DNA sequence: TCAAGTATGCACCTTTTGGTAAGTATCCGT
DNA sequence: ACGGATACTTACCAAAAGGTGCATACTTGA
């Protein structure tokens, strides 16, 4: 139902919607690593270098509440939890691939532009 | 101290790089409209409902400095400027299409999850 | 018993981002 | 001469995002 008024600011296009799901400083990295298979919390933390506990948990929860990742608590003696992509998450990661490719192909240019902008502030 | 990384903190994957270019509250919408052809500033402002001058200009400048859009000043008697996608920008928009599709297909779910998260704060 | 590892939660603070509202300079129609 | 349109620019704020570090509760190993 297209509700094109100023009251209900629905997404203007699919991309807009998608960005709400994948934007977040660490989400692409998390998805990148989860795409390799289920990963334990600690392992993920060591993979996604530089992320803090707070951020990692927070982003994982958001991805979980969006149905992208699945948290599995094994209820074991020493805590044991892992995270994996849901089928929905897998479909997202697949849709992300062209953007990955584009980014890879132009990584240099993007980095240069970023530095330029950061410098001129 | 969380800066134990002496390496060049480049992007972890292409997607990560790409997100630096397209994330911004109004960028997807801007790209969406520019994809339809060169657009004058005022026209764009009327299309991207709710955006302020400050934001529109700012995002356009960033997209321009990233080589995604091109600003054309016709140097005419009453001011006349328009914005269009560069070939680079066009290639980006093309790479974005699968994500658009994914977002469209799951718009409902995404909106629901967003609302849920917004509510539980 | 004490440290270290597991997976989180929470409080506090800084940085980044976005919004509001004003001003600039030029031109056009009335 | 004045209001409105053009395309911006600027200053000031509020909100969101992110970072730091301490606390929890449980377990295993030294």
From TrEMBL, chains A, B:
Gene3D superfamilies: Winged helix-like DNA-binding domain superfamily/Winged helix DNA-binding domain. One of its GO terms (molecular function) is DNA binding. Residues 13-111 form the HTH hxlR-type domain. Keywords: DNA-binding, Transcription, Transcription regulation. This is Transcriptional regulator. It comes from the Bacteria. The keyword Acyltransferase does not apply. PANTHER family: TRANSCRIPTIONAL REGULATOR, TRANSCRIPTIONAL REGULATOR, MARR FAMILY. InterPro entries: HTH_HxlR (IPR002577), WH-like_DNA-bd_sf (IPR036388), WH_DNA-bd_sf (IPR036390).
């Amino acid at each position: 139902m297209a509700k094109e008024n100023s009251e209900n600011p629905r997404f203007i296009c699919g991309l807009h919607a998608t960005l709400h799901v994948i934007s977040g400083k660490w989400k692409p990295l998390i998805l990148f690593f989860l795409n390799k298979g289920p990963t334990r919390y600690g392992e993920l933390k060591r993979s996604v270098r530089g992320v803090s506990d707070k951020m990692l948990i927070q982003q994982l929860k958001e991805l979980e509440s969006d149905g992208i990742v699945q948290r599995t608590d094994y209820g074991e003696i020493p805590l044991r939890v892992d995270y994996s992509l849901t089928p929905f998450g897998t479909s997202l990661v697949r849709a992300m691939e062209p953007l990955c490719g584009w980014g890879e192909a132009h990584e240099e240019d993007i980095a240069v532009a970023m530095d330029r902008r950061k410098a001129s502030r």
